[in-house]
Design a protein that fits this description.
With about 750 residues, the protein is mainly α. Helices cover about 65% and strands about 5% of the residues. Belongs to the cullin family.
């Protein structure tokens, strides 16, 4: 069906404007329900759309696409400038926001229907001429004519409402949220308008608001109360963003609040008199400490002063433990090489602050370092004659030996683990190893170890901390005893065959590998016939089995059970081999016991004077006096004389007679020798790899390699000089303070 040409003015004035645009504006201005789905019936809408379609599809010069696009824009601009803008100009504060949101709602409806009426323009004309779409053009007109005019007043009104809410007032959150959506829409697909027109003023106002609030809080509240308010404020700001602000604002808003109420007030809060961090630590206020960490954990630089105070506090607590030990040492008549009370204090302190670091401070690396630095400082502060490494080793000895601490297996394991943790802070770990190895040797050789499993457990824990090099000798000691059990069975069969038909003495020998065990003092003595025969049988047996090995007898470590009779009563005397040799010298075989002067006894036994004094002191001056001394006193002199006690009595039939140890638990000379070897070996390894190094760099790398002790740089320098003398290194003739490796 043919159709006549539609003139521009006829189509616009008689059809589009009258039937659609004027009616749409009237509906919007009347305040009718704009949420209804159909402001125009389908027939009315199709009629207007068809008119626009026909006007855009007529052949030139009657194609009115350009003119309709222009009039579409003019219609919206005229409505905005003539109706909307005047309605906003006399409004302020919350009334401005309400009017704006209402007018924005009207504009969205108008823009939608205008886009529907002129939809054919979007499909062809807009695309072909690269023009803004009808919807975007409508938004652009609102932004240029309305938003840019009122945005500053609107942003200020929104911020005023937000500040009222911060002060506790109840506001229309939906109104603020609608305004936020308007700002977002004005970005035309981006958040630029929202960020520049609203977010930036909001952040500035927030900074000013919390600067005032924090000043009031800091003056009138303790540190815990201040932080409770700060935490609540931060949570409120996060909730506020979720309720009506754009999610991109949260990080920026929280950062501004944190800066004002936390970063700028941190120093004052931590040092506040009566409630600062030191007071909280002293009073063990765990909830408040946890809150401090939560609030300041966002940046490491905020945590640094906190971790520093924690380190100082732990160091102070540790030094108090050291001072209490120092007081005990000064008041004691004789200082002992063990102080279990002191070690238990350190273990309890470590438990307390390890728990604090792992829970309240979430195991943060800065606080782990603070804990480590603090314990390293006071654990290596020795007072008295015995070092802390000696006290720790002696504490382990009490736990692991029979007759020591009465603990369950679980308690033993727990104490060992805690002690190894404390050991890890020692600088002189090699000294601990030497002391521990000596005490381990005593437990093993004297059958005083409560459990082989516990011994191996302790060694495995040390191995995990320090590596196999650290525990190799200890493991070798345990292996010696395990292998010795198998060898002992073979020897017993051999021994029984050798002494068959004669009076048999129970006899066993433990073979030790020299490199594993501590160096024991060698004691020469004249064995009695009963022992000489046993000694010879084993020597022949061992040489036959191991012809390339040499036996060295350590008499000071032997144990003997000697049966002694006094009248009708007999006792089993549990003594050392040296004590047994001395006792057998007084054996009369039913006759009157002989009397010996000290010199005569020394000549008969062949035992050195100082050692013999210890032996005779244990037999004649101890609790069980099986030897009688003249004159009676508690010291042994060369002029004394001895004989078997004629009337010895004891309630127990098995009597243990202890004797003072012949060796010192700290072989510091051997430790120094081992350190010398370790320093020189490290120097050679480094120089072999580097060929040439300056002095300071070589010293630094040697210190980095030595994990078991930290030598003085002067000691390292002396070892370098020794290596130069032995031609491992040489000084660089061209560069001062530089060494070269000699291949």
């Amino acid at each position: 069906m043919s159709q006549g040409i539609i003139n521009l003015d006829d189509g616009w004035n008689n059809e589009i404007k009258v039937k659609a645009i004027d009616r749409l504006e009237a509906i919007l201005n009347s305040g009718l329900d704009k949420q209804q789905s159909q402001l125009f019936s389908p027939t009315e809408y199709v009629q207007t759309y068809t008119t626009c379609y026909n006007m855009c599809t007529q052949k030139s010069p009657y194609n009115w696409s350009q003119q309709l696009y222009q009039r579409h824009g003019e219609t919206i601009r005229n409505y905005l400038s003539g109706t909307v803008l005047p309605a906003l100009r006399d409004k302020h504060d919350i009334f401005l926001l309400k009017e704006l949101t209402a007018r924005w709602g009207n504009h969205e409806i108008m823009n939608k229907w205008m886009q529907r009426f002129f939809m054919y323009l979007d499909r062809y004309y807009v695309k072909h001429h690269s023009l803004p779409s009808l919807m975007d053009a409508g938004l652009g007109h609102f932004k240029a004519l309305i938003f840019d005019e009122v945005r500053r007043d609107v942003a200020n009104a929104m911020i005023d409402l937000i500040n009222q809410e911060r002060d506790g007032a109840v506001i229309e959150r939906g109104l603020v949220k609608s305004c936020v959506r308007l700002f977002e829409a004005m970005g035309m697909g981006s958040l630029e308008a929202y960020a520049m027109a609203f977010e930036e003023p909001l952040l500035t106002a927030t900074r000013e608001y919390y600067a005032r609030r924090s000043a009031n809080w800091i003056d009138g509240n303790s540190t815990p109360d201040y932080l409770i308010k700060a935490e609540a404020a931060l949570e409120a700001e996060r909730e506020r963003v979720g309720a009506y602000l754009n999610s991109s604002t949260e990080a920026k808003l929280v950062a501004v609040v944190e800066e004002e109420i936390l970063e700028k007030r941190e120093g004052t809060l931590l040092e506040k008199e009566g409630s600062g961090l030191r007071v909280l630590l002293t009073n063990d206020k765990r909830e408040d400490l946890s809150r401090i960490f939560r609030l300041f954990s966002k940046k490491d630089e905020w945590l640094l002063p906190i971790s520093s105070i924690v380190r100082e506090h732990i160091t102070g607590m540790g030094n108090d433990c050291i001072n209490r030990r120092e007081a005990r040492v000064e008041n004691a008549e004789k200082e002992k090489n063990e102080d279990p009370e002191f070690v238990r204090e350190l273990l309890a302190l470590h438990d307390k602050y390890t728990l604090l670091v792992n829970t309240e401070f979430s195991g943060n690396a800065l606080f782990q370092k603070a804990l480590k630095d603090a314990f390293q400082e006071f654990v290596n502060r020795d007072v008295g004659k015995h070092r802390n490494s000696d006290l720790m080793s002696s504490f382990c000895d009490r736990i692991l030996k029979t007759g020591g601490e009465k603990l369950s297996d679980e308690e033993v394991e727990t104490f060992l683990e805690k002690t190894v943790q404390l050991f890890s802070y020692l600088v002189d770990k090699d000294l601990f190893a030497e002391i521990y190895r000596n005490q381990l040797a005593k437990r093993l050789l004297n059958q005083r170890s409560a459990s082989d499993d516990h011994e191996r457990l302790m060694i495995s824990k040390l191995k995990q901390r320090c590596g196999s090099q650290f525990t190799g000798k200890m493991e070798g000691m345990l292996n010696d005893l395990a292998i010795g059990e198998d060898h002992q069975q073979d020897f017993e069969q051999h021994y029984s065959a050798q002494v068959a038909g004669s009076k048999q003495v129970d006899f066993s020998v433990q073979v030790l590998t020299t490199g594993y065990w501590p160096t024991f003092p060698a004691v020469d003595l004249h064995l009695p016939p009963e022992m000489t025969r046993c000694h010879q049988i084993f020597s022949d047996y061992y040489q036959e089995k191991n012809s390339k090995r040499r036996l060295a007898w350590v008499w000071g470590l032997g144990n003997t059970s000697v049966r002694g009779g006094w009248g009708k009563k007999s006792y089993d005397l549990q003594v050392t081999t040296l004590q047994a040799v001395a006792l057998l010298a007084f054996n009369a075989g039913g006759e009157v016991s002989p009397t010996y002067t000290f010199d005569a006894l020394r000549e008969r036994l062949g035992i050195p004077e100082e050692i013999l004094k210890r032996v005779m002191h244990s037999l004649s001056c101890g609790k069980h006096k099986v030897i009688e001394k003249e004159p009676k006193s508690n010291t042994i002199k060369a002029t004394d004389s001895f004989r078997a006690a004629p009337k010895f009595q004891c309630k127990m039939l098995k009597v243990r007679i202890p004797m003072a140890s012949l060796e010192d638990s700290q072989n510091t000379k051997r430790v120094e020798e081992d350190r010398t070897v370790s320093i020189e070996a490290a120097c050679v390894r480094i120089m072999k790899a580097r060929k040439t190094l300056p002095h300071q760099q070589l010293v630094a790398e040697v210190l980095a390699q030595l994990s078991f002790f930290k030598p003085n740089p002067k000691v390292i320098k002396r070892r370098i000089e020794a290596l130069i003398d032995r031609e491992y290194l040489e000084r660089d003739p061209d560069t001062p303070n530089t060494y070269r490796y000699l291949a």
